[in-house]
Write a structure and sequence with these properties.
By secondary structure, the protein is an alpha+beta fold. It has three domains: 82 residues, Thrombin, subunit H, CATH 2.40.10; 101 residues, Thrombin, subunit H (Beta Barrel); 112 residues, Pdz3 Domain (Roll), CATH 2.30.42.10. It is an enzyme of class 3 (hydrolase).
Length: 347
């Protein structure tokens, strides 16, 4: 009799939970969008350079009636075109406003208004999230729009840089299913508030194995909505050790440019990305691009100096000049540019 009673209680409890999830999904899913990006890349075919277009997809979510959308930085950082698809099928273009690759968060904005009113979601206080809390994710795994996954917070990670002590990254680990295309999707608490932005998964099979990570909502709000993290449009790798010797870098380290987005700060500084794809020291790198040696006389020789240089970029204002020293095809070049009006106008 006790066992039957327990089963009845368990069934009623699970039914109530399912109904709650369904209701929360209905309230929030319209604000979730599919993001498709396009960018070009030069590769070699039988020694002949060939330019090809690469597409990628992920997710995002609307946070304002003005068309502001939060997503993952790695999805849009070097994109040449960003297309947003809504639940009703309407497609609109968007541009990057702010991006912080270290925390993998970015803010994009629609370049034209939607034909119908936008539905947005509420940002929650991620500091109140605890290990063991139940969460759900709405995203577009493998391009399957508005897919639901449910799980629990498994762990919280927080890291502070050595320069000025500000917290720059904070991630939640969860067993809610995350796959290709989930990046940028919202992670909700059981109040229907966004407490995370899906970032990446850890897997040995290229599929979900119960280890997914999301950047916390508070970090996203701080970096994007308050501090307005500058969009460099650069995909780069910090190199040091044997790789710097192989590439004849005249100092202990540097930033190897992989790709540069048009109309970004990187393109204003006339930086060039690489074209030769190689695996070195276990890392997949695109070689042949510029290597940044200094930014405003700050030698980029370790992670602390890179963080220091980042805050120099954060202080840029209209009319300011930026100086960089780069290694390009074996020669050291000095580049100094005034930040043009159009770069700040788009913000």
């Amino acid at each position: 009799m006790k066992q039957i009673l327990f089963m009845i209680i368990l069934f009623i409890t699970s039914l109530g939970f399912s109904q709650k999830i369904s209701k929360l999904y209905e309230q929030s899913s319209e604000a979730v969008v599919l993001i498709t990006t396009m960018q070009s890349q030069v590769t070699f075919n039988n020694g002949i350079p060939v330019k090809k277009s690469l597409s990628a997809y992920g997710s995002g979510f609307v946070i304002s009636s003005e068309g502001d959308i939060l997503t993952a930085s790695h999805l849009v950082q070097t994109a040449e075109m960003i297309c947003v698809t809504f639940s009703d099928g309407e497609e609109l273009l968007a541009k990057v406003l702010y991006s912080y690759p270290l925390a993998d968060v970015a803010l994009i904005k629609l370049t034209s208004p939607k034909s119908t009113p936008l539905v947005s979601v509420k940002m929650g206080n991620s500091d109140h999230t605890k290990i063991g809390d139940q969460v759900f994710i709405v995203s577009s795994p493998f391009g399957l729009r508005h897919s639901l996954s449910v799980g629990y917070i498994s762990r919280k990670y927080k890291r502070e840089p050595s320069y000025n002590g500000l917290v720059t990254t904070e991630f939640f680990q969860s067993d809610a299913a995350i796959n290709d295309g989930s990046s940028g999707g919202p992670m909700f608490n059981m109040k229907g508030e966004v407490i995370g932005i899906v970032s990446f998964l850890v897997s040995q099979t290229h599929g979900f194995q119960g280890l997914g990570f999301a950047a916390s909502s508070n970090i996203a709000k701080k970096l994007l909505l308050e501090e307005h993290a500058i969009w460099t449009g650069i995909d780069s790798n910090f190199i040091y050790g044997p790789i710097t010797e192989v590439l004849n870098v005249p100092q202990e380290g540097g930033l190897l440019i992989q790709k540069v987005a048009p109309f970004s700060l990187g393109s204003i500084m006339e930086l060039q990305g690489g074209i030769y794809e190689m695996n070195m020291e276990g890392d997949h790198l695109i070689l042949g691009g510029d290597i940044i040696l200094k930014l405003d006389n700050i030698p980029l020789i370790d992670k602390e100096s890179i963080i220091k240089a980042w805050y120099v970029l954060q202080e840029l204002e209209l009319g300011d000049s930026l100086s960089i020293s780069i290694l390009r095809k074996g020669k050291i070049l000095e580049i100094k540019k005034e930040i043009p009006y159009f770069f700040f106008e788009k913000l």
